[in-house]
Give the backbone structure.
Amino acid sequence: MNPLDLILIDDIRAASRQMVRELGFMDTTVAATDHPPSAVHTILEIGIRGPMTAGQLADFLHLEKSSVSRMVRKLIVSGELKQMNDPDDARFKPLALTAKGRRTLAALHAFGRRQVSGALARLSEAEQRTVREGLMLYARALEADRAANAAAALQSVG
């Protein structure tokens, strides 16, 4: 690895850590809620994508199923989520937002939009587009790398 690559990598890592801090993910609760980051992501993803099982949620969020089960139980007890029954398959128990969960989702969207809007207001239109494209490219590249590493790990086992 040449020194320029190392500088680029370290700059991206530093920016990623700063974004995590600025977005509040180092706090015990996130986005002006009483929920930890994983619960906030759960509410957002179920709200955006619709009902999901705990297993689907674990896969989507890249979390251990046991951690998701504990978090889901807490969100059900707090009234944010409800477990539905599938009339065709009793083993299939999709999770959906309750009315309280939908209110929390709306508050999360409002909070996040204010936060991003405030930051983007400090940039030109061209810079805003650059941020959008760069983040989307970086997220896709991280996903592709994770998938490639998972596939390689499976091949080495089998």
User: Anything to note?
Assistant: The longest helix spans residues 125-157. Strands lie at 81-83, 95-97. The chain has two domains: 31-122, 125-158.
